[in-house]
Amino acid sequence: MKKFAAAALIAATAATAANAGALVDPIVEPAVIVEEAASSSSAGILIPVLLILFLGVALASGDSTPSV
Questions:
Q1: DSSP state letter for 33
Q2: What is the sign of the dihedral through the CA atoms of 30, 36, 37 and 42?
């Protein structure tokens, strides 16, 4: 009977330790995503506008000396 009681005690202890605690979801920190800021859409049009501006100035200045 002592062996049976000892086996029952060991089985009860082992079963309690195996089921101790509850399943808890791990705490996971969210990943930090760094997104680069999009460049302004007007940056691509800057060079053509300056080219048209300089062309207009060159045509407007032309040869302004009066002919004699």
A1: -
A2: negative
Name, in order, each residue with C-beta under 8 angstroms of 39's C-beta and a sequence gap of 6 or more.
none
Q: Which runs of consecutive H residues, i.e. helices, occur in the chain?
A: 2-18, 46-61
Whole-angstrom distance, CA of residue 50 vs CA of residue 35: 31
- For the chain, what is the largest distance between any 2 Cα atoms, rounded to a whole number of angstroms? 138
Alpha-carbon Rg for the chain, nearest whole angstrom, is: 43
In this structure, which amino acid lies at residue 4? Answer: F
Tokens 């062309």 sit at which residue? 55
Cα distances (Å, whole numbers) of residue 20 to 8, 13, 14, 15: 18, 10, 10, 9
pLDDT digits (tens, 9 = 90+) for 2-25: 888 888 888 877 765 455 556 777
